[in-house]
Design brief:
This protein has 687 residues and is an alpha/beta fold. The chain is 31% helix and 22% strand. A hairpin with a 6-residue loop joins strand 22 and strand 23. Bound molecules: 5'-O-(acetylsulfamoyl)adenosine.
């Protein structure tokens, strides 16, 4: 078995001595809730909730979680988290003010809960399976090795002056070093701000500046789909507009030469020179653990802030119970750590439970569309959690890429990010899972911290219907609101705005640096309940199906994008007068991006040239996945008399539904609609 060695054999290795591990006993002894780390919850008995074995049915326990949330969550928090100091009140929440506090005055360390306690009990069990870009080059990291790496990383950060409460931007490829960087921040009390390593330098800069991060952790280069990604170069470009950054740690992923400047520090060398033990910081339950940027309908992406204990508990519980994780199983969430799915189901959820978790560095189609299935055969993964967009893409390549590999190790399958259409669901169930594995269509958001609606857990053998997340998780109380009346819709067979009525431990606490925006975005639309931004349908039997976003947020291949973000870039083209971006249904990506662009008078540049320029600008300012699929140059946009763009009309045109435009008489200039329909036909060849 190949071991991960951070390019230096001395850092980690099989022969790490036991005495070194014992140095970490310091933190074991300071636990004040009357037990050692080894007593911690790792029960995997036949009953999933040994804490509540008096409840006969799933439904009873679910009802109890709603009716007695303090007892429910308090019990689980005590049994599953290792605390330095027990908490007092279970919660203190007032959603009208976006005031959310869980496990008050409790003290803990998240990295100790994710690493130390497992390293003590099962030092040689696998923590990370690094599925590197090249098939067959995987590396394994045990809990002992992960602990040593996290400790070294913590010492590196502290020795360079990174302190509790500091924001640390992480711009790294999927790798053990990236996981260790996140956990080291947690260990020393710094707040990590992971930026997906596919974002452009401007997007990265915006996130560094908004967070006022003094520290950046990056790599020389990334490797994905056989291609080199110049990560350090992107950071260098970003730093031209960030004056707050004082140091940049550079991990050698490829070891190729990259220019090093005066802020740059060789991370590999630093790691090698630091001791592999470290005394963790004692954190309050409600100290920030991390922030993660996500797109909304207006303005710049928001730094969603999560705290320590509530997030950790919710990540751990959902990972274990939604996927029915059993000890020694290999868990494979193929999301990137740059997204919330990677935070919760690659890092915190699995490690909290002492699981072996996959770090997938490659793409679903490298070197061919059999990659996922070949990986499953080779690594013998028991769980696979992926995005519908990947499934839809692979479905098109045909069954033979799947069936030529042995998938008998698979036990549970999950997906997240966008609605999973019926065809893809059936392919997932029948072809991938050979009708043997439950499919969990999991609905949740950056803001919810973890899975909120999902078919499992549920009563043994309970039905799973295609293409809907169906049932709320424990403690989650979904409601549908009438968008016109602002009141709750009751009963079945209704559609409305999906809200969640009661607080749960994993929910976001704030938008970093702008609590008012947090209240305005999530708690004002429907007074005092959390508004998700999604619409949903509730069936007669009370099951939930997500109908899509109700605001100007697009979900492209599972990436959340505000239409306003793209418009901002388009408007910066010299020739642009104004623009409107909408989504249109797309076979593979879920949604495609359609940009309507009004040009200034007397523009001489050719349309082709401007299209190329616009795409390049969007790629540079946001990312490649944000580039419009279709750009239409138009003399005007459909506007109301008050000047509001009627996006509904643009959406219909983009979706090839000119017959369903509805009433256009309120438009200032209704004739513009015909012009748009005509031009759309020309561009797409569709009527
Ligand atoms: C985890 C994640 C959140 C948005 C959300 C929805 C959409 C997510 C599903 C889904 C239909 C699903 N976080 N979404 N899961 N739509 N069915 N199972 O994706 O913050 O990046 O996006 O994604 O619109 O609001 S996210």
């Amino acid at each position: 078995m190949k071991r991960f060695v951070v390019a230096l054999p001395s850092v980690l290795g099989r022969n790490a001595s036991k005495s070194k591990l014992l140095k970490n006993e310091k933190c074991v002894r300071t636990l004040q809730v009357g037990r050692t780390l080894s007593d911690s919850f790792t029960d995997h008995s036949t009953t999933p909730f040994p804490e509540f074995d008096t409840f006969a049915t799933h439904d009873e326990l679910y009802q109890f979680s709603l009716n007695s949330p303090d007892f429910f969550w308090g019990t689980l928090a005590r049994s599953r988290i290792n605390w330095y100091r027990d908490f007092g009140r279970v919660k203190d929440c007032d959603l009208t003010r976006g005031h959310i506090r869980w496990f008050l005055d409790g003290e803990l360390n998240v990295s100790v809960n994710c690493v130390d306690r497992h390293a003590e009990k099962n030092p040689d069990s696998i923590a990370l399976i690094w599925e590197k870009d090249e098939p067959g080059t995987q590396e394994y990291v045990t809990y002992r090795e992960l602990l040593q790496l996290v400790c070294r990383m913590s010492n590196v950060l502290e020795s360079h002056g990174v302190k509790r409460g500091d924001r640390v931007a992480i711009y790294l490829p999927q790798s053990p070093v990236a996981v260790a960087a996140m956990l080291a921040c947690a260990r020393i009390g710094a707040i990590h701000n992971v930026v997906f390593a596919g974002f452009s330098s401007e997007a990265l800069a915006g996130r560094i500046v908004d967070a006022q991060a003094e520290t950046v952790i990056t790599a020389d280069q990334g490797v994905r789909g056989g291609k080199i990604i110049e990560l350090k170069q992107v950071v260098d470009d970003a730093l031209k507009s960030c004056t707050c950054v004082k140091r940049v740690f550079v991990y050698q992923r490829t070891g190729n030469d990259v220019p090093m400047g005066k802020l740059d520090i060789n991370l590999d060398k630093e790691l090698a020179s630091q001791p592999d033990t470290h005394t963790p910081a004692v954190m309050d339950s409600e100290d920030y653990l991390f922030m993660l940027y996500t797109s909304g309908s207006t303005g710049k992406p928001k730094g969603i802030a999560h705290t320590q204990a509530g997030y950790l508990l919710y990540a751990g519980l959902t990972m274990k119970h939604v996927f029915d994780y059993k000890p020694n199983e290999l868990f494979g969430c193929v999301a990137d750590i740059g997204w919330i799915t990677g935070h919760t189901y690659v890092v915190y959820g699995p490690l909290f439970n002492g699981a072996a978790t996959l770090l997938f560095e490659s793409t679903p189609v490298y070197p061919n569309p059999g990659r996922y299935w070949e990986t499953i055969e080779r690594l013998k993964l028991n769980h696979l959690y992926l995005a519908p967009t990947a499934l839809r893409m692979l479905l098109k390549s045909g069954d033979s890429w799947v069936t030529k590999y042995d998938r008998s190790s698979l036990r549970k399958l999950g997906c997240v990010g966008e609605p999973l259409n019926r065809e893809a669901w059936e392919w997932f169930y029948e072809v991938i899972g050979e009708e043997r594995c439950d499919i969990c269509d999991t609905w949740w958001q950056t803001e919810t911290g973890g899975i909120a609606i999902t078919p499992r857990p549920s009563a043994p053998g309970a039905e799973i219907r295609p293409a809907m997340p169906m049932r709320p998780f424990f403690g989650i109380d979904p409601v549908l609101m009438d968008p016109q009346m602002g009141t709750e819709l009751t009963g079945g067979d209704v559609k409305g705005a999906l809200c969640i009525k009661r607080p749960w431990p994993g929910m976001a606490r704030s938008i970093y640096g702008d609590h008012q925006r947090f209240i305005d975005t999530y708690y004002k639309t429907y007074h005092g309940v959390y508004f998700t931004g999604d619409g949903a349908y509730r069936t007669k039997d009370g099951y939930y199906q997500i109908t899509g976003r109700m605001d100007d947020v697009l979900n492209v291949s599972g990436h959340r994008l505000g239409t306003a973000e793209i418009e901002d870039v388009i408007d910066d083209l010299e020739e642009t007068a104004e623009s409107a971006v909408v989504g249109f249904p797309h076979d593979i990506k879920g949604w495609g991006i359609y940009a309507f662009v009004v040009l200034k008078d007397d523009v001489k540049t050719s349309e082709e040239e401007m299209k190329t320029q616009l795409k390049a600008m969007v790629k540079k300012r946001i990312s490649a996945f944000a580039q419009p699929d279709i750009i239409m140059f138009t003399p005007g946009l459909p506007k109301t008399r008050s000047g509001k763009i009627m996006r509904r009309i643009l959406r219909k045109i983009a979706a090839n539904q000119p017959d369903e435009l509805g009433d256009v008489s309120t438009l200032f200039d209704p004739s513009i609609v015909d012009a748009l329909v005509e031009k759309h036909k020309q561009i797409t060849g569709k009527s």
